[in-house]
């Protein structure tokens, strides 16, 4: 039997608290379905490492990680000691870029037992995916700062959209939409105001859409799209967006569905030549770190997505994924629940309850 090799990086803040619960759930499901996993833990890509070494990761980080099938990742960032752009560009964003994790797949679902901040919504009403372009767009390193400190100071950062980069994320999103009952794709741009890159994205959507005659395509400008997320979330099925808009929509969506504490993500290199990365959507949450009250569900769900990915179509792994989701649903209904869901449970007790339910 294949033994899957997984790299584990817990990172900063609540990353250290939620990753053990993610592993507990993945282990329970792996045991139940006869899946073998070998973990290797890495104690870098966190701000404590930066304090000691002046960098977030060892110089050979790529070689250390490239042979793993997947990376199970907590969160990075401790802005009190290291500026966020330094810690994130020195770790997570490097993984996304250098491992070519061009898909950031982020499910948004109103789960049973989770109070919805939008009136009159029930589970099933909100059930869509944000498919975020994850390697280019606004997150480019091209630009610079001139005449620093003078009143002529100029700061420029370019957005980069390549045909290869746009087409491959659109293809992924259209394939996903085609596989779902609603067969509906929504594309987010701002082509009325950002008049070069965004109309280009729209143009590629039109070209790609022609190859998916059975998928209905809607295009929205990002401003009104955020309003529809709040007012008409039932409208969405697969929402594809450039990097920055996808980032924003993937916090807004889960907030509309109750809490970002349950929102998972898969950073995928669908070619599987380099490791894909699975992590909660949320960050290191310094405001609640060290208290054992972070919701572990986002990380546990990300672990379920990782198992599904490892299976690459093998039904046993899909069953393991589904068993974790069923256990999450059970515990969201019956408790214990963390304070973001109005409960008084803690990270460990929620994690243990989910593992037991698996
Ligand atoms: P955040 O997601 O860390 O926290 C936002 C708010 O949501 C906080 O009030 C926090 O307590 C709450 N929250 C987040 N996760 C929760 C959970 N699992 N359970 C309960 N409540 C939860 O976002 P932020 O405050 O903007 O960022 C904090 C740090 O994390 C920064 O350094 C930021 O750059 C970093 N960050 C990292 C990632 C990542 O590693 N993927 C993602 C987002 C932010
Ligand atoms: C996310 C985060 C990251 C992003 C930050 C921490 C760089 O917000 O994964 O959503 O912007 O992609
Ligand atoms: Mn984000």
From TrEMBL:
<dbReference type="InterPro" id="IPR050501">
    <property type="entry name" value="ICDH/IPMDH"/>
</dbReference>
<dbReference type="InterPro" id="IPR024084">
    <property type="entry name" value="IsoPropMal-DH-like_dom"/>
</dbReference>
<protein>
    <recommendedName>
        <fullName>D-malate dehydrogenase (decarboxylating)</fullName>
        <ecNumber>1.1.1.83</ecNumber>
    </recommendedName>
</protein>
<keyword id="KW-0464">Manganese</keyword>
<dbReference type="InterPro" id="IPR019818">
    <property type="entry name" value="IsoCit/isopropylmalate_DH_CS"/>
</dbReference>
<dbReference type="Pfam" id="PF00180">
    <property type="entry name" value="Iso_dh"/>
</dbReference>
<keyword id="KW-0560">Oxidoreductase</keyword>
<dbReference type="InterPro" id="IPR011829">
    <property type="entry name" value="TTC_DH"/>
</dbReference>
<keyword id="KW-0479">Metal-binding</keyword>
<feature type="domain" description="Isopropylmalate dehydrogenase-like">
    <location>
        <begin position="5"/>
        <end position="354"/>
    </location>
</feature>
<keyword id="KW-0520">NAD</keyword>
<comment type="similarity">
    <text>Belongs to the isocitrate and isopropylmalate dehydrogenases family.</text>
</comment>
């Amino acid at each position: 039997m294949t033994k899957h090799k997984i790299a584990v990086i817990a990172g900063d803040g609540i990353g250290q608290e939620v990753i053990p619960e993610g592993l507990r759930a993945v282990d329970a499901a792996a045991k139940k379905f006869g899946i073998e996993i070998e973990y290797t833990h890495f104690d870098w890509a966190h701000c404590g490492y930066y304090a000691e070494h002046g960098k977030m990761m060892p110089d050979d980080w790529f070689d250390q990680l490239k042979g793993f099938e997947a990376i199970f990742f907590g969160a990075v960032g401790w802005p009190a000691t290291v500026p966020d752009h330094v810690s994130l560009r020195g770790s997570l964003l490097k993984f996304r870029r250098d491992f070519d994790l061009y898909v950031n797949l982020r499910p948004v679902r109103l789960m049973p037992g989770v109070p919805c901040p939008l009136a009159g919504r029930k589970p099933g009403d909100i059930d869509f995916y944000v498919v975020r372009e994850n390697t280019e767009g606004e997150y480019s390193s091209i630009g610079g700062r001139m005449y620093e400190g003078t009143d002529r100071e100029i700061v420029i950062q370019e957005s980069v959209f390549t045909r290869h980069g746009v087409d491959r994320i659109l293809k992924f999103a259209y394939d996903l939409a085609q596989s779902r009952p609603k067969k509906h794709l929504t594309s987010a741009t701002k082509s009325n105001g950002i008049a070069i890159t965004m109309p280009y994205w729209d143009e590629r959507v039109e070209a790609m859409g022609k190859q998916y005659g059975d998928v209905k395509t809607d295009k929205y400008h990002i401003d009104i799209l955020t309003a529809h997320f709040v007012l008409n979330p039932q409208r969405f099925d697969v929402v594809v967006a450039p990097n920055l808009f996808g980032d924003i929509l993937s916090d807004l969506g889960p907030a509309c569905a109750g809490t970002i504490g349950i929102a998972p993500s898969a950073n995928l290199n669908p070619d599987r030549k380099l490791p894909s990365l699975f992590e909660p959507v949320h960050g290191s949450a310094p405001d609640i770190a060290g208290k054992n009250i972070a919701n572990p569900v986002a990380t546990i769900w990300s672990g379920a997505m990782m198992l599904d990915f490892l299976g690459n179509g093998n039904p046993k792994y899909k069953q393991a994924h589904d068993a974790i989701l069923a256990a999450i649903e059970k515990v969201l209904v019956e408790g214990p629940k963390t304070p973001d869901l109005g409960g008084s449970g803690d990270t460990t007790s929620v994690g243990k309850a989910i593992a037991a339910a698996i």
